[in-house]
From TrEMBL:
Regions crossing the membrane: 67-86
Topology with respect to the bilayer: Multi-pass membrane protein
Subcellular location: Cell membrane; Membrane, Caveola
InterPro entries assigned: CD36_fam
GO terms classed as biological process: cholesterol efflux; cholesterol import; plasma lipoprotein particle clearance; recognition of apoptotic cell
Name of protein: Scavenger receptor class B member 1
Gene name per UniProt: LOC104965145
Gene Ontology CC annotation, any one: cytoplasm
Transmembrane recorded as keyword: yes
Family the entry assigns: Belongs to the CD36 family.
One function term, GO molecular function aspect: scavenger receptor activity
Pfam families for the chain: CD36
Length: 132
């Protein structure tokens, strides 16, 4: 992902190919063979704070961001639902206050029930005024 090697190994082997050479008597009794001459190996790896930084940036943060994106989506949906419910509740409360201030104590009552309730209130007022 970064192009930086975290673990490296270098191996090198030098071989010598030996065979019979005509005209050289010393090689007359040698069978064809590949003989290793030098072996070299070196390896290294990144550790410490640099490895911690790479691990955090390449493994931990992407996993956290994956989780957080769904968390933020859920939080946004919950906020929209709560706002909608509160808007509906306050709108209903304003409607009830308006109806009560106009004399409609029971917003679910029919016009006849409302008129009868209004007539009863007038009669009570007339009785109270007549006595006092």
């Amino acid at each position: 992902m970064t192009g930086v090697p975290l673990n490296v190994s270098i191996r090198l082997q030098l071989n010598l190919f030996m065979k019979t050479v005509s005209g050289i008597t010393e090689t007359g009794k040698i069978a064809d063979v590949v003989m290793p001459m030098i072996w070299f190996e070196e390896s290294g790896y990144i550790d410490g704070p640099i490895l911690s930084t790479f691990h955090t940036n390449l493994v931990v943060l992407p996993a956290v961001m994956e989780f957080m994106q769904y968390g933020f989506i859920a939080l946004g949906v919950a906020t929209i639902i709560i706002a909608s419910l509160m808007h509906h509740k306050f709108k209903r409360a304003r409607t009830n206050v308006k109806m009560t201030s106009e004399g409609l104590d029971n917003p679910g009552a029919s016009y006849k029930e409302w008129a009868k309730g209004d007539q009863d209130k007038k009669e009570k007022c007339d009785i109270n005024n007549a006595g006092g």
